[in-house]
Amino acid sequence: MPEDPPGAIDRLCTDAVRDSPASPYDAWRELSATHPEAVQLGVGFPFTDAFPTEELAAATNEILRKEPEALQYGGSEAADSLPGAIADHVGRRGLAVGADDLIVTGGASRAIDTIADVFLEPGRVVFTEEATFPSAVTYFRDHGAAVAGCALDREGLDVAALGDDLARRERTGEDLPTLLYTIPTFQNPTGTTLPEKRREALLDLATEYDFAILEDDAYGALRYDGESVPPLAAMDRERPGPDRVIHVGTAAKTIAPGVRIGWVIAPEAVSEEIERRHAGAANSFVRSAVARYLAEESFEERVAKLCESYRSRRDHMLEALEGEMPSHIGWTEPDGGFFVWVTLPDGIDAEAMLPTAAAAGVIYMPGSAFYPNEGGENRLRISFSTGSPAETERAVAALARTIESA
Predict the structure, then answer these.
(1) What is the secondary structure of 34-46 as a DSSP string?
(2) Residue 71 contacts by C-beta under 8 Å, 6 or more apart in sequence?
(3) Any idea where the Aminotransferase class I/classII large domain is (predicted)?
(4) Which of 18, 69, 108, 354 could be bridged to 250 by S-S, CB 3.0 to 4.6 A?
(5) Is the model's pTM score more than 0.70?
């Protein structure tokens, strides 16, 4: 935190707040403000033109006319129908649950923070992928947990390396994880998807070493190519023994981030605690409007439209990378999600290169922003979710020139 005059109330903040490092987004925000002309590839935003504004406006007006109790404590009949629509959506992806099995939350990030509240405290350890969603790391550390990164490769979490690390920790008496946080499908920031065989092996490790798994499925519905892979939570429910996976989903990428609607599907043993801590956090009026909208256009109809657009945007980016990038640069080719993960030669620091890139006309997110500890200096994340084809081509060309001159 910045230094304030003597007596400023920041001295009353918790140690976790006072000792927190600068946000990885700080440099990105500053450069975005000073270079508004640069093409923005750093953010993982949905493209604004895809928001169902007219449909949500109609649904909102109908709720206000017919169900004004949606503005009251406790919600409305429409809000109560939302879990059923979500259950149908996740069921089509292989996770068979009923409406009563869902906890509707005020967004996925709030859900992750609530789950951290249930599982983490000082002295406990949480494992994440070595490059991961930075806000999740902040939530885990705010609860006093130590965060350890696990190796990734081109297929996502390196489960064999994870097994070796767990065995070493057990052998040496080092702390084992209470929780493992993973984004197994179209991972942020790498875009990779964990194969089914590795998912099964990960569930085996969770049983053997007695930890819970937090599955962040923010991008899982946005598949453009390839065969679908069942969510970890679906596989977990088919296995003998107690369930270990807490599944978090969101409407941010499929409807709009501003509706702040997420959901949790958790083992019965902990679902009541999660729901109790999250009580009142979901906006009942927005839930009502979204439920009314989904009565007219289902998640599946909505997702099909989005996937067609995002597939085209991804293809434009991959074609631009192929045409512009030097031969010694590597990148992932995701089957879904929003992101491409670029690997630079050793010795090129993506964070140090960012101001030059911004001046050249492109802003990206440095790889080091996604590492819970250290690493990722020669990597960067670019998003294809918002740019037009012309903007993407211009941005990738600017990035290639910047790399060649680094």
Answers:
(1) H-TTSEE-S--PP
(2) 64, 285
(3) 39-399
(4) 108
(5) yes
Phi, then psi, of 290 in degrees rounded to 5: -65, -40
DSSP string, 203-264: HHHHHHHT-EEEEE-TTTT-B-SS-----HHHHHHTSSS---EEEEEESTTTT-GGG--EEE
Last residue of a domain, one of 297, 326, 350: 297
The whole-number pLDDT of residue 2 equals: 55
Per-residue pLDDT tens digits for 315-341: 999 999 999 999 999 999 999 999 999
**Could you tell me which residues come within 8 angstroms of residue 56 by beta carbon, excluding any fewer than 6 positions away?**
256, 259, 289, 290, 293
Reply yes or no on whether the pLDDT at 158 is more than 70.
Answer: yes
Residue numbers of the domain that contains 307: 10-51+301-405
Burial-class residue 251 by CB neighbours within 10 Å (0-12, 13-18, 19+). Answer: buried
CATH of the domain at 150: 3.40.640.10
Q: Which of 260, 258, 266, 271 is nearest to 232 (CA)?
A: 266
Residues 192 and 326 in one domain: no
- 313 and 185 housed in the same domain: no
Say if residue 171 is in the same domain as residue 72.
yes
Integer Cα distance of 316 and 124 in angstroms: 44
1 within some domain:
no
Q: Indicate the residue among 275, 297, 319 that finishes a domain.
A: 297
Residue 166: how many CA atoms within 13 Å on its side-chain side?
A: 22
Strand order in the sheet with 330-331: 330-331, 339-343, 379-383, 365-366
Are residues 188 and 123 part of one domain?
yes
User: What pLDDT score was predicted for residue 215?
Assistant: 99
Residue 186, sorted as left (phi over 0), alpha (psi -120 to 50) or beta, turns out to be: left
Q: Mean pLDDT throughout 133-144?
A: 96
Q: What is the pLDDT of residues 247-281, one digit of tens each?
A: 999 999 999 999 999 999 999 999 999 999 876 66
